[in-house]
Each structure stands twice: as structure tokens, then as C-alpha cells.
Specification:
Layout: E1 2-10, E2 13-18, E3 31-32, E4 34-37, H1 44-56, E5 59-60, E6 64-73, E7 77-86, E8 89-90, E9 101-106, H2 117-128, E10 133-140, E11 143-150
Parallel strand pairs: 1-7, 6-10
Antiparallel strand pairs: 1-2, 1-4, 2-3, 2-9, 5-8, 6-7, 10-11
Length: about 150
Amino acid sequence: MNTTLVYIEKDDKYLMLHRVKKENDMNKDKWIGIGGKLEAGESPFDCVRREAFEETGLTLVTPRYRGIITFVSDLYGTEYMHLFSATDYTGDIKEDCNEGVLEWIKKDDLLSLPLWEGDKIFLKLLDTEDRFFSLKLVYEGDKLVSHRLEI
């Protein structure tokens, strides 16, 4: 499965999604960036723009492709997530998101939230690494058992 994830940035904060609205959600109660599954015929750029607009109401002008994250899970299979960041967008954040609650979170406060362990790794990379990177995350259940970064 191919997915996208974008971290939209403003004033040293990221727009985060607290996944509290869907039943049977593998991300239930976690804080994540904005994104979703690629549809037939979409490029990662097409997908990240569509998902950002659907979930937030914002139109990404110049999303920056930062890396590829390979998730390997004994519960959920393998996912290839195309990771983006964005600082240039238009529009206003919509009042209600059917995926969860949208909130601007200070970067310094992110790691104290309920996040996937692997997300903590690539969130740090977004702030410290300027080059494109590949990160492999291996999970058993909800536990991160190994990771490998290649730059």
C-alpha cells in the first residue's frame, strides 16, 4: 500500500490530527500528520494535495518531498509512505474533520504526545536532515522493534 503524510508548518508548529473519530482505526488516539492512501492514477504529489485539502481545507502550494518511510508490520502488512513537509499553502482550516481533531502543536511539544515510536524518528529528521531519506520501521504489534535510516 502507498500512502502520503504531510507535516504542515507555521510559526514553529505543525498542524496535527488527533485520531479520535473513527472506529477500528489503527491510529486511534494517536497524533499524526495529514495524509492518506494514493488512489489509482495519482502521484504522491497529487495524493498529498488532495488529502490535505480533504482533511484540512488547505491547498498546498509547494509541498516538499522529504523521504520514503517503509513500515513493516506483523498486523498491518507493509506500507510505503511518501513523507512531505509544507510551509506554503492557501485557504482556511475547516471547522470539522471527519478523521479527528486538527490542532497546531508546537514542535517542542510533539514528542510528549501519543505518537507512533517511528514517527518520533522521522519528525526529528524533518528538522535536522535536509536531504531526501529512506527510513525502514519494523513493528510487532504496536511496538517498534527495529529501524534503519539510509540517506
